[in-house]
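Problem 12. The chain below contains 159 residues. Write out its predicted structure in C-alpha cell notation.
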Amino acid sequence: MTYASAARLIIATTLCAGLAACGNSGRTERSAPDQGSDMRPEVRSSRIQDLFTGSENPNQSVGVNKYLWNASLQVLNFLPVQTIDPFTGVIQTGYGTPPGGGRSYRATIQISDPALDARSLRLSLQGPGGAAVEPGTARAVEDAILTRARQLRIQDGRL
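Solution.
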C-alpha cells in the first residue's frame, strides 16, 4: 500500500467515525416517539405537497398575503430586488432612487400574516450608509403599499 492510499484510508475512516459519533449524541436508550403527532393521512391536516398544489385560497397555503406581497413589489418597483422569500414573507431590495426624488433608499419588507391588515406589514427603509429615514417617509410608503393592496383586492373581486 502506498503512502497516498494509506493517508486516504485514514482520512476516510476518521470521517466515517466522526459521522457515526454524531448520530447517537451520547444517549444509550431510545427516546419515546411523540404521542401528540399522528402521521396517518386521514388524521394529518397538511402535507408539504399542499404548499405547491392549487388551492382555493392561496393565502392559506403560504402565510403571506398575496395582495400585500404584490403591492409591495409594485410600489417599490424602482428598487432592485436582492432577495425574495415568499415562505417567510421577506423582500430585501438594493439601493434605488424614487422617480422625481434625489435621495436613494433601500428597503426590507416583511409580510407576517395572511390577513390584509396594516399589522401584517413591516417596512424598514434606509438611506445610503445605513442612514435613518424620516418616519413620515416610511409611513407614506407603508400607506402606499396598503392602498395598492386594497386596490388589488378590489380588482380581484374578493370583498
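Discussion. The radius of gyration is 25 Å. Students who got a different answer should revisit the alignment rule from Section 12.3.
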